[in-house]
């Protein structure tokens, strides 16, 4: 039995029928048995605070204070004992000499673990600056976190800015293969080759840009990219402020072994983006909008007609033996219902497709109408995942390797900062109440003024150090060959 500081629960108290408020809202959840402690603060005014956390097997932690900070070793014991069952949070508040006992908080501990790591980009919540960006790796079983690369390592006032984005891993980093895109100063794409970080310039005379949004093939040394000529339009009245749009785009394939780039799709009147391989590696999903400008000035045309830009979801067959692509097939025509769908991600079993849908456009991180949707690929029916969506932005999302957890970004707390939320998926098409990524400090999110961007689950941690990334960034980019 675990008893902290020999703190006893009150012998005499009155019972309240009202639920006690805690921050973050760690109530009525389904959580992994290997997650970091759910530290929280009690959002009620009182003169005394006591929290008892206990399992059905009898282990208990009693803690005084408004803020509840749990030792990792004690927390792991409680999770282990409660696996496949309920963990209880009992809170008492004191006013004067009288204690009040509130309804017990119940959290279910799932039998399925979550992947040990995530990788994400930490960014200022701004569309005008990229002065300080970093790629971070977080251990979800604890609060350990490390910086993989920070662009401040190479920036100065005379060299100009550097943007780092679009980190991607093959098969949840089981293979150790990753890629990272560098824009601006020392531009290039870092790709793992022969267990080393090498730097490439994926732009050729036959493509409109270097590779932008990536997707590693699950088991071949291939990366599918979109190529994009991207620009921003700013609103003067709309509180969404900015539109990120493609003037032109397409899809390419980079063969790492051959160092060759080839075109997958380059349709004249289509804007293709956000490729994603199916788990079996036999098809590539992507988003595309049909777009024919009405006037010669393309930038002005897009600025005037941004609300009419609607993206649909497609897939294209792929033969892993011949490396040949087949025909394009429509998966979901969001434009037919006046909506725009993008950022397709398939569950590891290939049965479900998750994507974001908003009123228009494809860069939904700025769109308050953006919600997460789920399509059962056997029935072809999509639905709004109302049980995890909010009134604000939901955007980037990633499935865990076992398909039981999804991590996604949301601005639900204050409408300004993007934070990461985790939700349990029961395999029958249902999600459970999401909870914010646990932090060591209970009020971390109220005091930390940066956004979390592009979360990706990892089974294995990244082996490369910040120094390894820095050395690779400083190298001259290797040129690639274009294959007709």
Chain-wise SSE layout:
Layout: E1 14-15, E2 22-23, E3 30-31, E4 40-42, E5 48-55, E6 60-64, E7 67-68, H1 72-82, E8 86-95, E9 98-101, E10 105-109, E11 117-123, E12 134-139, E13 145-150, E14 162-169, E15 178-184, E16 188-193, E17 196-201, E18 214-216, E19 222-234, E20 242-255, E21 260-265, E22 270-277, E23 283-290, H2 298-304, E24 311-319, E25 324-332, E26 340-346, E27 352-358, E28 371-376, E29 381-384, E30 394-399, E31 405-410, E32 419-424, E33 435-436, H3 444-447, E34 451-458, H4 466-474, E35 478-479, E36 481-482
Parallel strand pairs: 1-9, 3-10, 17-35, 21-36
Antiparallel strand pairs: 2-4, 4-7, 5-6, 5-8, 8-9, 8-10, 11-12, 11-34, 12-13, 14-15, 15-16, 16-17, 18-19, 19-20, 20-21, 22-23, 23-24, 24-25, 26-27, 27-28, 28-29, 30-31, 31-32, 32-33
Describe the structure.
The chain starts with 13 loop residues before the first strand and ends with a strand. Strands 1, 3, 5, 6, 8, 9 and 10 form a seven-stranded mixed beta sheet that branches. A hairpin with a 5-residue loop joins strand 18 (214-216) and strand 19 (222-234). The mean pLDDT is 91. The chain has helices spanning 72-82, 298-304, 444-447, 466-474, and strands at 14-15, 22-23, 30-31, 40-42, 48-55, 60-64, 67-68, 86-95, 98-101, 105-109, 117-123, 134-139, 145-150, 162-169, 178-184, 188-193, 196-201, 214-216, 222-234, 242-255, 260-265, 270-277, 283-290, 311-319, 324-332, 340-346, 352-358, 371-376, 381-384, 394-399, 405-410, 419-424, 435-436, 451-458, 478-479, 481-482. It has two domains: 14-109, Immunoglobulin-like; 117-474, 6 Propeller (Neuraminidase), CATH 2.120.10.30. The protein has 484 residues and is mainly β. 6% of the residues lie in helices and 44% in strands.
